[in-house]
Amino acid sequence: MNREDTFLRRLFWISVAVVAVLLIWQLLPWIERALTGPAAVPRAVTPRGDLAEDEKSTIEIFERAKGSVVFITTQRQVMDPWTRNVFNVPRGSGSGFFWDDLGHVVTNFHVIAGASGARVRLNDGRDYAASLVGASPEHDLAVLRIRVPTDRPPPVPIGSSADLQVGQKVFAIGNPFGLDWTLTTGVVSALDRSISGNGRTIDHLIQTDAAINPGNSGGPLLDSAGRLIGINTAIFSPSGASAGIGFAVPVDTVNRVVPELIATGRYTRPTLGIAIDDNLNRQITRRLGVSGVVVLRVEPDSPAAAAGLRGSRVDAEGRFYPGDIIQSVEGVEVDSASRLLARMNDFRPNDRIRLGILRDGKAMELTVDL
Question: What is the per-residue pLDDT for 78?
Fold first, then answer.
């Protein structure tokens, strides 16, 4: 037997061994099943025991509140450029909740802004067309109404936001990304936050790390007693999704504005009777090296005129002389026209307030009846 035959024979037996190993490997599951008997039986479930107390509390809060939370979808009208026909197309969605036993539903203004119609879906699947009762863009609040003939869900219990503390547990219920009746939890992260947009400033907002995403807007923020403490309104996120920084309009503001929207359809903000301008204000205060809001003009027979506020003036040669500079309202500093207007939202007509002003370089206080 020459070397070539020996090599070929060894190669043959090596190949046979490899094939045999692969065959056995493929047959191992079948062999194992044959040795162990019939199909595998599911493992026995280990008893869980009772739920933790905080889990029970969270479940109870959700079960009590979910029926009062609604899913809002909006439409807008578009025109076919060829046929000139007008029809509705979906615009967006958001959340809301029952305010009272009359079918009033509270949500964010930006949920329904620019919409030609809205529908409200209840937790049990019933769906109703909604009518707009009133809105306050300055507070990002709106009130809708639906006609529910029977089994109307109860309103959400009202709490207070004046006594909130950082660290309190909060619960947000809404419809993020259209995923209806979603519960997220967190804590009060900060209080008295302010956000600006579209030329408006909203003050006194509650900051929370409870996950709030698009679609949560208008949904309730609840405390551990299941009471309404805020309305989820905005998130701070570069990606557009929850980044752990959400904001809610405090319930004390809601409880002041919503009844007036239901009664009159709009919120009447108290006025001072002065003319102000943010762009011009920045130029003047920067040049003077001060902070505050420059009074450009005082309206005759206004609260400001009665209190003795002075407006700006221009002499015959065109030189500008700034009037009084409002620096605080009831001890709270204001540094822009939008901030002053937002601060006025904290008061009602006929309230008496203290203004801290700067007149000819001297600080003083005036009392104004709004």
Answer: 56
> Catalytic residue at 140?
yes
Residue 285's domain comprises 274-369
Active-site choice (110, 161, 312, 336): 110
Active site residue 110: yes
Please report whether residue 83 resides in a domain: yes
260 and 315, same structural domain?
A: no
User: Which residues lie below 8 Å from residue 217, measured CB to CB, with a gap of 6+?
Assistant: 94, 95, 107, 108, 110, 111, 174, 232, 233, 234
Catalytic residue (choose from 136, 140, 204, 328): 140
Q: Is 104 a catalytic residue?
A: no
Which range has the worst mean pLDDT, 26-40, 210-224, 296-310? 26-40
Q: Within a domain: residue 318?
A: yes
Number of separate domains in the chain: 3
- Give the domain-ending residue among 264, 291, 325: 264
Identified catalytic residue from 68, 93, 217, 338:
217
Distances (CA, A) of 150 to 66, 101, 104, 130, 153: 18, 11, 15, 16, 9
Are 278 and 362 in the same domain? yes
